[in-house]
ABC transporter ATP-binding protein
Amino acid sequence: MNERNFGEVILDLKGISLSFGAMRVLNNISFNVRQGEIRSIIGPNGAGKSSMLNVINGVYHPQEGEITFRGEVRKEMKVHEAAGFGIARTFQNIALFKGMSTLDNIMTGRNLKMKSSMLAQAIYWGKAQKEEIEHRKKVEEIIDFLEIQAIRKTPVGRLPYGMQKRVELGRALAAEPEILLLDEPMAGMNVEEKEDMSRFVLDINDEFGTTIVLIEHDMGVVMDISDRVVVLDYGRQLADGTPDVVRSNQDVIDAYLGVSH
Ligand SMILES: Nc1ncnc2c1ncn2[C@@H]1O[C@H](COP(=O)(O)OP(=O)(O)O)[C@@H](O)[C@H]1O
Ligand SMILES: [Mg+2]
């Protein structure tokens, strides 16, 4: 994996600091993301990993630092900007509409792509209908890709946890993202489900060229599928580099990997 060649830096985070009141959650964090890579963020619970994703997709606004996306420097990302730039995300705690079917949940991921307003739909019914058909087609492609045809009509609240995670991935994919932020997509999964999810992450990266920023606790998975890994430890940045570099970093071993991992 480490031999792969990457494109340019598309996202560059420099000196990011984020506080909530007196609590500093991110302290001078700097790393970049290159086009087409699988970039992981690891660290213990409370390290600031999810907060970092929230900075990237504009939910949190850092007090210090700079975010450069495709050459444009900004102090903070805005939620609508991030979405418009093609940054999509899944959440640590599944955020799906439990009463809605798999199909309809994935369809909600198309919202940003739907051009016709309600008024336009009323006036230009034929055009809106054509658009709807195109959206459905895209959603069906994602359902095939993720091999979830059998559960397309099932309300997601009735699905096992691992399947819900897969549906959430489908919803993020429906936005046809350039950068996909995955917050612990394998948490709570058994070995087989983790293998499936790892394969989907690799296939998304490979087949669609999607750049992936991944938060994951399973070190086997992280070291296996990541091109580069940044390590956070209670707001501090401990290390940044290839899996080999990070794995052999003494600070990382002492603070995080230890002997039990
Ligand atoms: N909106 C918020 N308000 C206050 N504290 C927050 C908020 N979001 C995160 N935190 C705090 O920031 C720290 C890092 O959290 P988080 O980014 O979720 O860590 P991780 O994902 O690495 O487990 C935690 O102490 C958490 O309680
Ligand atoms: Mg988290």
About this structure: The mean pLDDT is 91. Residues 49-50, 92 surround magnesium ion (ligand 2) (CB under 6 Å).
